[in-house]
Amino acid sequence: PPTAFAGFKPDQVGAMPPEAFATMKPNQMNAMPPNAFAALSADQIGAMPPAAFAAMKPAQMGQMPPAAFEAMKPTQLGAMPPTAFAAMKPAQLGALPPDALTVMVPTQVGALPAAAFTAIKADQIDALPPEAFGAMKSTQVGSLPPAAFGSLSSDQIGSMPVNAFTAIKPAQMAALEPEALVDLSAQQVGAMPAAAFKSIKADQVDALPAEAFAGMKPAQMSALTPTALGAMSPEQLTELPVQAMGALKPNQVAALPPDAFEAMKPTQAAALLPAAVGALKPDQVGQLDAATFGALKPAQLAAFKPGVADGVTVEQLEKLTPLQVKSLPKAFVANL
């Protein structure tokens, strides 16, 4: 009877042969004292029927030795109640075989302590189904080792709630494969800390969907390296909010590929800092639509370097008002 299991001591449990656990029922599992679980071996765990795990309590989970988790089967882990996962320790999660994680559901993942994720491995992340990431919390995401974070797929990242992105660290972002970013939404991008953008590489920028750039914030934009911005496409640039465009520094603007400027909107051009306009190159200015060129303010036009005149077209100049023309530097005009 279940009451008999309530009196089990660790040494008694440890001495039992694995086959003795093969018929364990849920109410028997539930009755065992937590400290008895500290003596369980991998062979004993492996012999237990999945149904028994449905009755596991958090206190029992917390007492199990990490080595016992090495024998956990998918059907056993899948049967555990989410409440049991709340007591899982880092060493226990790290000991689970990857195939056991293939059945985890969002409620189980969401119940795990953030600290447990510090021990998760890349092959375990690979095994988790995308839908399981739907309950990830920011503290859990922030606890993932970079090596594990770098194995995330686009489907897994796409399933993460927006608030989970608020804790992403630079080292984690740098570890991601470019193809993992292809489904990021504007909301997910907008939730990321500005510091994470410092580590984004050019091939990652290239992989981001154009619509994701609509979520960029000024602090995020100014954190991007010139090298990363060198991969920006026209389709991506045209999605940038005006406020984000206004945060670009001179060396960032100078790094943008010329063809990206063909999609710049008048409101975006008008938002650029005068110092950033002063960093423009002839081949960049030459790509601007005439209406976009005409949206530049006198203070921006006054920042033009003389050599930029080589890229300016007649159509662009025709869009300027007398006040704008008057603001052009004399050295610039002399080069027209």
Mean pLDDT across the residues is 96
How would a crystallographer describe the biggest sheet? none
Structural class: mainly alpha
Q: Nearest-angstrom radius of gyration?
A: 29 Å
Q: How many extended strands?
A: 0
Q: Considering DSSP H and I runs of 4 or more, what fraction of the residues is helical? A: 40-55%
Our count of helices gives 31
pLDDT < 50 stretches: none
Strand content: under 5%
Q: Could you give the distance between the termini? A: 97 Å
Outline, from the CA principal axes? rod-shaped
Structure, described:
The chain has 336 residues and is mainly alpha-helical. It has helices spanning 2-5, 10-15, 26-31, 42-47, 50-53, 58-63, 66-69, 74-79, 82-85, 90-95, 106-111, 122-127, 138-143, 146-149, 154-159, 170-175, 186-191, 202-207, 218-223, 226-229, 234-237, 242-245, 250-255, 266-271, 274-277, 282-285, 290-294, 298-301, 314-317, 322-327, 330-334. The protein is built from 31 helices and no strands. The radius of gyration is 29 Å and the shape is rod-shaped. It starts with a helix and ends with a helix. The relative contact order is 0.05.
Task: Please specify the SSE layout and strand pairing.
Blueprint lengths: L1 H4 L4 H6 L10 H6 L10 H6 L2 H4 L4 H6 L2 H4 L4 H6 L2 H4 L4 H6 L10 H6 L10 H6 L10 H6 L2 H4 L4 H6 L10 H6 L10 H6 L10 H6 L10 H6 L2 H4 L4 H4 L4 H4 L4 H6 L10 H6 L2 H4 L4 H4 L4 H5 L3 H4 L12 H4 L4 H6 L2 H5 L2
